[in-house]
What we know:
By secondary structure, this protein is an alpha+beta fold. It is 39% helix and 18% strand. The strands form four sheets. Strands 1, 2, 6, 7, 8, 11, 12, 13, 14 and 15 form a ten-stranded mixed β-sheet that branches. A three-stranded antiparallel β-sheet has the order 5-4-16, with no helix packed on it. A two-stranded antiparallel ribbon has the order 3-17. Helix 2 (156-173) runs antiparallel to helix 3 and helix 12 packs across helix 14. The longest helix has 21 residues, at 334-354. It is elongated.
Amino acid sequence: MASYRPTIGLEIHAELATQSKMFCGCTNNPEEERANANTCPVCMAHPGTLPVPNREAIRHVLRVGAAVGGDLADFSEFDRKSYFYPDIPKGYQISQFEHPLVTGGMLADVAITRIHLEEDTARSSHAAIADVSLVDFNRAGVPLMELVTEPVIHDAETAGNFARELQLLLRTLGASHANLEKGEMRIEANISVSKDNTFGTKVEVKNLNSFRSVERAIAFEVDRQISLLEAGEEVRQETRGWDENAQKTFSQRLKEGSADYRYFPEPDIPKLLLSEISDLTRESIAASLPELPWDRRRRYAALGLKEESVLSLTTSPERSAFFDQLLSHLDANTEHITIAANYLLSDVAGWYAKNTKEEYEGLDPSEFAVLVKLVANGDLSSRGAKDTLGLLLAEGGRAEEIARRESLMQISDEGQLLDLVKQVLAANPSVADEYRSGKEASLQFLLGMAIKETRGAGNPQVLRKLLLEELGS
């Protein structure tokens, strides 16, 4: 098969986390279960109503733009995007076309074309049995950010990584909850293949509700288009959906172009001059940014953590926030930090995965730091630390008190351990003789017996030293 080069661009929509909708005062509540509960004459497009832009939604988009290094607009405006469908009661969507809030930028080594703001549509549901379609207008008018990348992605993995990084950024900024399974973040991929540096025929794939679906849909579509071209057929420019069960794309409709939407400036909303709005100026937006995910990764790497640990600790703002609280109790001690990260990403993560609590719920970072220090100082063995940690997670309380109460503190006193070592040797004379005869593995057996006698509390290094002395080595 001839060599083909895939070219991929992403269009990603994210519902913004604001108190009210984009152009009216209705509550923006994605958890609302009552149909049409959060509606008003504005978002239902009653005659004579006028839209008023949501200032916080504009600020969210500008902060995303600043974070990715985009050019923040001074002048911007809203436009009418005409199309007729039951989920758009006006017969048009208020969006942005010629003058988006953000142009340019870079995220995860992928160039960004633009980021603009629009209103979401209502939610349609189709009951095949009753042969009816229902429309819930709770979502109609919710602030919706749209980000468009340049067509510079050439493989499915890069596309998936970009989407994951955008989700993390949105959550870090508090701009969106960005839950794909709830439709709060929706990804569309524009895919083409060609044998040279020209663009092939673009196909848009929708209904991608997980990062894995993004990657699998792109991989499938690339293979599908190559197969068509190899068979001498043409790739049709169209919109396709992704069938999660069949793991393949399917045709939905011919792809519209921008001319089909008949964009024109929204006459009911004044033009925006952002430099005249104090909290929306470029300087104000830049000053409002928190530590960004890539900056946090660099900071964690400088602490001596492995790349894998750094990536795991920055997968969510909540996880990073807890780790930062923990760091404040560890006095920049590299050994302590490494031990803390290892326990967080293994034992702690495993415990929360098996229980119904939210990650780190009920875990006091200061007490977790105490446990880390007990391990680092040799006061708790690995086994003792695991047992103490399990009780700390399940019950709360103080780490050292738990360890002492359960007799889990590590015993390092030679005088206290010497009698026990002698008892182990007396109970296993043949094994002791095997070691003296040169069988090194016998020492490990004796050490294991000694640790068992202390219920895991005996310091292995001290026990080993005492065993060697008693064995005459």
